[in-house]
Write a structure and sequence with these properties.
Strand content: under 5%
Order of helices and strands: HHHHHHHHHHHHHH
Number of helices: 14
Radius of gyration: 18 Å
CATH architecture: Up-down Bundle
CATH class: Mainly Alpha
Distance between the termini: 26 Å
């Protein structure tokens, strides 16, 4: 329990700060903060974590493959879960496939596994994000998925990081120091924004959500563990994949189902919730 509390304390403190800040009536520029995190913080975090990480291109690719297979299997399992819970598969498919690997998953991975495992957490997060921007948008008929992908700064950070990994090249010191500094605000702001989002949520049907969670979490853990073993991930990467895929459902899934047809990437509503 002391070790568990040591991991969760920073997460609870950051989210609690955002929750209390809003509850006390203080303003919080959610649109500005989330745009800042998404357009600058997250790409910098990807570059800083992957470019200097102790992870080779083969392991990076294996981790992305394993995460992709888990997402696909969770999508396929949606039809069975929908019958079990007597819900429409269209309602459940996005929550089944896309966990909150951003502002909750990354801090948990950081404090549970340290900097050595953070690169794997980033890899899982960007894989889930790529599926959200493409398949998620396509299933919900929200604009052009490829257009959305092209406008996503994190995609370019991933491409640059993969090129550096494949060629064994390091970032110039001035650029490495810059992205390291810029990435420093990302995780704290993710946590605070998570708390702000929680402060605005109204619980209306806790029983339904609890029942879904009791089915999804162990199912995701089992599928992630089996696929990680089948792909041959190292033990550290396997553990992180299981933890990331067991995270709570991302608020972005709600927007995929309910938002009007528009460019979600640039809409304030999308920016306010895509990391929650």
């Amino acid at each position: 329990m002391p070790n568990f509390f040591a991991v969760m304390a920073p997460v609870l403190a950051g989210a609690g700060l955002g929750y209390l800040w809003v509850r006390l009536g203080h303003p919080y520029p959610v649109d500005f903060i989330t745009r800042l995190v998404f357009n600058i913080g997250t790409p910098s975090l990807v570059l800083a974590s992957l470019a200097g990480a102790d992870i080779d291109a083969a392991t990076f690719g294996q981790t992305m493959l394993a995460a992709s297979l888990v997402i696909i299997c969770m999508g396929a399992a949606t039809f069975l879960v929908a019958k079990l819970l007597r819900r429409s598969w269209r309602v459940l498919i996005a929550p089944m496939m896309y966990p909150n690997t951003g502002n909750m998953g990354l801090p948990v991975v950081l404090y549970a596994f340290g900097s050595a495992g953070f690169a794997y957490g980033i890899t899982v997060m960007v894989t889930v994000s790529l599926f959200q921007f493409t398949l998620g948008a396509a299933l919900s008929s929200q604009g052009n998925p490829l257009k959305t992908l092209v406008k996503t700064p994190t995609v370019y950070a991933i491409i640059i990081s993969m090129a550096l990994l494949l060629t064994g090249t390091s970032l110039p010191p001035w650029l490495a120091n810059t992205v390291d500094l810029m990435s420093g605000f990302t995780v704290p702001l993710m946590l605070i924004t998570l708390g702000v989002s929680l402060a605005s949520i109204q619980v209306k049907n806790l029983r339904s959500g609890l029942g879904f969670s009791l089915v999804r979490v162990p199912l995701a853990a089992g599928i992630a563990w089996l696929i990680a073993g089948w792909v041959g991930l190292p033990p550290l990467a396997q553990s992180i994949l299981v933890v990331q895929m067991c995270m709570p459902v991302a608020v972005f899934n709600y927007l995929l189902l309910s938002a009007p047809s528009e460019n979600l990437l640039m809409s304030p509503a999308w920016c306010s919730a895509q990391r929650c």
